[in-house]
Amino acid sequence: MNAIEVVRAGALTTIQDLGRRGLAHLGVPRSGALDGPAHRLANRLVGNPPDAATLETTLTGVAVRAQAPVVAAVTGAPAPVRIDGRPAPWGLPVPVPAGAVLDVGTATHGVRSYVAFAGGIAVAPVLGSRATDLLAGLGPPPLSAGDVLPLGTPAAPPALVDVVPQPAPPDELVLRLRLGPREDWFTPEALRVLARARFTVASASNRIALRTEGPALTRAIDAELPSEGVVLGAVQVPTDGRPLIFLADHPTTGGYPVVGVVPEADLAAAAQARPGTPLRFHVVG
Amino acid sequence: MRLAKARRTPSAKGDDRGRVVNRTSGVNRGVRVRRVGDRALLVEVDSAEEVAALHAELLRRRAVGALPPLEEIVPAARTVLLDGLDAPDALANAIPTWWPLPPVTTDDGPLVELPVRYDGPDLAEVAARWRVPVAEVARIHSGFEYRVAFCGFAPGFGYLTGLPERYHVPRRATPRTAVPAGSVAVAGPYTGVYPRTSPGGWQLIGRTDVVLWDPHREPAALLRPGVRVRFIPEER
To answer: Are B53 and B46 a contacting pair, CB within 8 Å?
Structure first.
């Protein structure tokens, strides 16, 4: 069985797939790749099914050594890709020879690159998924230098592609927002602020939530909200009034009101927004 | 959104004004169905008992194929979240017509017995708040049968109802940074058992050696919504 050895783990590199579904009633977050389309594309490029596990990096990339020849692909946040020091293409399947080091450098823009290997990363699944869940502590821990990760058997040949367009760095993150279920816990002025104000992405953002800096939303109801189930993309407003957007490792229940929900299709862009990026909500209903 | 708004009543603002149960048509206007994004509904009722009855009804309907496909059914304190629906509007319209729901009776659901040493560090404080001798806490707490109302906070952490209101105590003013796994704790209307070492603000009254959460076991969580729980005092 082939394997990769971690040479440089980067700031935070985790194993991700499509996550754990159907277990929220047990308090198990969904987890999985924050930028789902980039994860799926990386898998498609190397001939993997969409649920194969990839590496999700954070800003500073990752470097791994292949024990045997393997086809890899890097997607998501664009970054310089090198194989034993020689430049290799981002966004295309690339052959990594036995013993060679695949190095994904610091992202030129965006936050999270995805590295797929033909056959997928084959660590033992936990509750049906290999994803690292940083809130609940499920799945493999974040990568450390020296870790050896087994690879599965390639299922299909790599995709035949010439070029994959690089996403342009967005000047501003615009997230659609459907109001509810608890918009009535906020003042009409707070809802106007939510729809019109410019927020920025806060540096405290992580796999659990994209946090914002900017105006605080004032509540119309001061009571304590009994804990209730929350969904991916829920915009929750804690006591400081600063809305946060729940990402894949979000808690399954919460006791702060959710003013609205960002559709899943917009969350990949949220996952790639660096701290300081201007952020607006486009209220759609 | 439109459907949910049409059903909103003043009781959504935290009081019970506007709650009307129309028994002749079987439609319960006390239930609020709120849209959550494009693919989810939050069904809000008035009590933990109604949540239990609604949750049981949803599981019954799903078991016989009478519920559209969905990914998650998540009960909580006063709500049940239905997530991963392709067409939430039809279900949002149908749910209020399900009332009256059969109530959940005390012998519904599997029973889990947890042996407990009632020797927690907050035993004296809980005894003081209950105005009973410390030695009485074990007898009182283990004298009730509990039910897992919902899970949250951590995988396998159940919020157990069943403690009468006169025994409800507040959380600790300062949460502990590390509560040992197996700690049996009370806060507000709930009893909980910490499935693993974690921070926590509940009052610790005892400890069990039973493993509550093991992702490599089936079932991974011993305390799942709807499970009945009895605490069996062990000799100290």
So the answer is: no
Q: For residue B67, what is the DSSP state?
A: S
Helix then strand count (H, E) for chain A reads 3, 20
Residue A196 per-residue DSSP state: H
The beta-carbon neighbor of B1 closest among A228, A253, A285 is A285
**Torsion, Cα of B32, A224, B191, A19 (10° steps):** 70
Closest CB to A26 among B34, B80, B220:
B220
- The answer to whether the CB atoms of B35 and A258 lie below 8 A apart is no
Digit-coded pLDDT (tens) for A128-168: 999 999 999 999 999 999 999 999 999 899 988 877 777 77
Residue A253: phi, psi to the nearest 5? Answer: -135, 155
Q: What is the pTM of this model?
A: 0.91
Burial A16-47 (b: 16+ CB within 10 A, else e): bbbbbbbbbbbbbbbbbbbbbbbbbbbbbbbb
ipTM over 0.85: yes
Contacts of A226 in chain B (CB under 8 A): 76-79
Residue of B74, B153, B160 best to disrupt the A interface, most CBs of A under 10 A: B74
